[in-house]
Every structure is written in C-alpha cells, then in structure tokens.
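Reply to dn_fold:

You asked what the input looked like. This is it:
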Amino acid sequence: MDLTRAIHERARDDGCIGFGVCDAAPFPDVRESLEERAASGTSGGVRLTYTDPAVATDVSQSFPWARRLAVAARAYLPAAGSPGAAAPGTGRVARFATEDHYEELRLTLGAIAEMLRDAGHRAGVLVDDNRLVDRAAAVRAGVAWWGKSTMALVPGAGPWVLLGAVATDADLEPSAPMKRDCGTCVACLPACPTGALVAPGVLDARLCISHWLQAPGVIPREMRPAIGDRIYGCDDCLDACPPGWPLLQTASRAGGRHDLVALLSLDDGSLVERFRHFYVPRRHARYLRRNVVVALGNSGGRDAFEVLAGYCGHPDWLLRAHAVWALAALDAGDGAAVLAEAATGERRPEVIEELRAAGVRGIHDG
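and this is what came back:
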C-alpha cells in the first residue's frame, strides 16, 4: 500500500479528525509575527514557541533531514466533558486540560513514526513541542484554517482539537490546502471576557486569562475578577465559535469542576501531581494555589472565609498577597478585622500594597 495512504488510514482509524501532509520548509511569515509580538510586548512574556522563533518556525533546525510534516488533529470533545454551571466553592479547568488529552495523539503519531521507520525513513514526533508552531503546519497541510481567535479550526470540530506532527525524510504526497476561512464571523472577539482578542487574529497575551493562570508572579489586580472561578485556561472564545458548536453539544458529561477548598487542603506534592499535565512555572505548587485562592475569592462558598483568612498568614508572600485580595472580594464575615490583623508586622511590599488596596489603613512600609 502507498505509504502516504497508509499513514492517512492509521490516523483515521485511531480517531484523528484531521490529517494531512505538507512540505517541511520554514514558515517565515509566522516567524516574523512571533518576533514582532515579542518585540511589541503583546506576547506577554509567554515563552513556548516565543522562546526561539527561528527553531519553532523551521523544523530543519531540529531535524535537518526533514522533507515533510505529517500533521494530525485530534478532538478532545466529547471526552473532556463540560464543567456545568458555576457553584459556590468550586472552580473549573478549561476542557483541553481536564486530563492529558495529548496522550492519544502521542500514541498515534508515535505509531506513524514507527511505520515510517519500518519503511526505511527517519521520523521524529512533535506533540505539544516548542520546536514547531503546530497551527501553522496544520494550515499548510490542509488540516485546518486560521481562526480569528488565533486558533486552528478543523472541519467537524472547530477549535476543539489538539495538533501534532511527525517530521520525516519520506517523500510523502502533500495534501491540498484548505480553501476555507471564518468569513464575516467575529463571534470570538466579543466573547473574550477581557478583550484580549484586540483584532481578528491578534491576541494580546497581557489581557489573556489563560496566560495569567500559567504565568509566574502576581496576577494583576484588574484581571482577578474576570478570572471568575477558573483555575486553569479559558474556553470563552472557543465556546463562541460556530464551527465548534456541533461537537460542543456532545460534551454533556460533567468534567473539569473542582472543590476549591479540597484542592487547597492537598500538600504541594499531591497538588502538583493532581495536575501534572498543566504548564506550571517551575512545577511549583504555589502557582496552582495562587489560582485557586483567586477563584475562591470570586466563587465564595461555605468554607471560603475561613480558608482565605488562614492564607492571609501563609508563609509564602505570593499566597498572602492574593489571599488578601480574595478575602476583601468576599466582603463577608469579619474580613476587615482579619485584614487588619494580617497587616500587623507585614513587611513584604507586595502584600502591603494589597492590604492598602483592600482599604486597610494605618500601614507603614517596613
């Protein structure tokens, strides 16, 4: 059987919703865009493919022998389910991260790489890998089109897909480009709760909830109310995308909602292990706790006051700072008294700033 056809069939049989082949030539326009966004600051300090645009947009930097990219798309709905309506004391994870949905895609592309090697060719797998802007490869391979949300949209699934590729020296037959785009639809732009989609196809990561929930340091105060009950990721622009609606309607199983107080009761090792597939700076539990504390301040719940009051005295200044904001946001119980007590002896300037913003008076810089 023709090798190109054989790997197409393997991807289809494994459940991939899209598959195609493209030339492994560089993506100069994508490199230019990455470099421009990094220079302008709209990348928000995101690393990922911004770490080295020259590598991310030229697969020959990693695989000098590559002639083709075999690109696959796998839908993570309906398996990921939906978080359902907000409930006090609970938080949600974006559907792509309810579990490691990349695993099945890795297995498929690993099997395709083995098929290519068995046929005498070289092959390397690129899944969730900063060495390739996978959206650009998917568009070139006819698997997807660029959406105005900056996502790659796939027929039959819209944005609800994960992408990956196999670089190979096999002279596979390239797929036809996709003749499709978003037309006049701009549904994703007003759907963004923070206005991060500043123009069609342009995302300002400095305004993006998903970015801040993965970033180190302090989440800007003005972003915290918009985070709502989210603890990782944001699906709002995806929810609004009409090509994804048919598949979204199949995601009726409950998934991605968590008891926030229960998460904060876990030790650091257990918390990191619980979400081991998340992008967490330096694999440090403090950033997961920070996100949960903010979500708890927004969602409340029976035990929220007591837990947040305790976190106002946490040894980690980053958690104290966010807990001060969250407790003030609850506006319940003896919050003012707890914050006044927390101000006693506080020396960390970031926490002092939060206490002042919460209305605590009489604080002197340490």
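The first strand starts at residue 18 and ends at 23.
Hope that clears it up.
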